[in-house]
């Protein structure tokens, strides 16, 4: 896939759509398009966090493997969202699994090259970090709401 | 032959329940059933989607329960009930042929007429799907009156999903976008996991915010976050309708148990536009 085609993906993906054309072109140079079959892992807990994923289409389960129980999904992420921020922080190891639940397409960025690019272009760096922070906030909010067990048994009448 | 007169609630004392008989009982989940009721006498309690009835068990008590279906024959009622307290436990245990007291209908209904010619978003959490099911059935019966119809439904787990037969039928409909999510999946669940507000983003491309009527029912925290998400997408407050549950007792705005700010939710609600509720959203128990 050419950089030009990747740029087109980035131009419509909500995570990158409102970046400058030049910034998207820089990002496209660090990226490739990848396809995942159902049950294929994008990310596995404990392994080096060496990539960042923009999900183009499909459904990905963020989960933990519990011995004796198998994978325990915590949240799903669909096309238009992003997966993985452990590459931003030392020691850059994945803390959860991410597994495709259906055929999934993602733009995959090489983490090392992406880190270098963000240090080189601080303006782009800030914009991406803001987006990642937004993503982290969203996931945290969702996890907190799930913790409340909103649909659990109500109080007695 | 002289036909027996049809009794309507207007002609009677609103505190006196009518006797109904349970025609059928369908188990939805471990603690929830749907009852279909038929009047014993020639009465027609014509409830609109969104309205509620007071259901009573002699010697036990009375509870407000929204209508969850459309009548198959005039006068019939359908209610989905979760066993929570003593009255609802008795209601859930009823069997076909058992008797029940019914008074109503009470309160405001979903704004189905306002939604004619508009995109419609129905957003339900948990048992909140029950009052919205009657709205969805009504919309699907006159599908041509509406533009895009989108139903979003969140439940605690796959086994807590209500109306599973309906859901699998609705998933096949090309004229309905249905998305479901659960908080706690089991090993067989291949669908979405997470909270309902997240689903709004996924369907944002399918509705025009300014021409959308949103109807929400679920736990109040879920509704708060859902409202914020709808606002982010540009749905006007006056197009967002909520169904609020309170301690309805008299059901005709006399006792004040269901008061929220200036509203008696039994008669001014349970369905209200958020534009009217917003000034009171600072009240902790909104």
From TrEMBL, chain A:
Residues 15-118 form the Cyclic nucleotide-binding domain. PROSITE patterns: CNMP_BINDING_3 (PS50042). SUPFAM superfamilies: cAMP-binding domain-like. Pfam families: cNMP_binding. This is Cyclic nucleotide-binding domain-containing protein.
UniProtKB/TrEMBL annotation, chain B:
Residues 15-112 form the FAD-binding FR-type domain. [2Fe-2S] cluster binds at residues 250, 255, 258, 266. Keywords: 2Fe-2S, Iron, Iron-sulfur, Metal-binding. The keyword Zinc does not apply. Its cofactor is [2Fe-2S] cluster. GO terms for molecular function: 2 iron, 2 sulfur cluster binding; flavin adenine dinucleotide binding; metal ion binding; oxidoreductase activity. Pfam families: DHODB_Fe-S_bind, NAD_binding_1. Binds 1 [2Fe-2S] cluster per subunit. One of its GO terms (biological process) is pyrimidine nucleotide biosynthetic process. The keyword Iron applies. PANTHER family: ANAEROBIC SULFITE REDUCTASE SUBUNIT B, DIHYDROOROTATE DEHYDROGENASE B (NAD(+)), ELECTRON TRANSFER SUBUNIT. This is Ni/Fe hydrogenase subunit gamma. It comes from Thermomicrobium roseum. The lineage of its organism: Bacteria, Pseudomonadati, Thermomicrobiota, Thermomicrobia, Thermomicrobiales.
